[in-house]
Amino acid sequence: MSGLVLKLGPKERVLINGAVIENGDRRSRLSIVTPNANILRLRDAIHPEEVNTPVRRVCYVAQLVLSGDADPDEAQHQLLRGIEQLSQVLTDHDSRSYLTAATDAVLDGQVYQALKALRALLPREERLMAAPVQ
User: Fold this and answer.
1) What are the two backbone dihedrals, phi and then psi, of residue 93, each rounded to the nearest 5 degrees?
2) Residue ranges of the domains in the chain?
3) pTM of the model
4) Strand ranges (DSSP E) for the chain?
5) Which member of 25, 60, 82, 119 has the lowest number of beta carbons within 10 Å of its beta carbon?
């Protein structure tokens, strides 16, 4: 059996295909065997009031697709446009690798993988935003 294995802590919530599922009082493990299921750990979710930077905005669009709150076809254009804008600013090799992976994932319809690649840019963006302007 292949698929995604989710390890959930007590009372942890996860969004699976638009349904919020809350774990019980003990740690548990779920095996997701349906291919292309949309899954988002709510502890990792970016909340609307936190969408205040360019990378977070693009991540949020991907999140909306995973939650079922955005049309995947329409969001694909927004994601690709957002990734293109980020690539004009984040020009270092590592950032380019993540942006390329995100682009490839969007084009393949793998929104979770795109979100995963984009989230890897959040610490870098935070450092850049905190850096003093010279």
Assistant:
1) -60, -45
2) 4-43, 46-130
3) 0.86
4) 4-8, 13-16, 19-22, 28-32, 39-41
5) 25
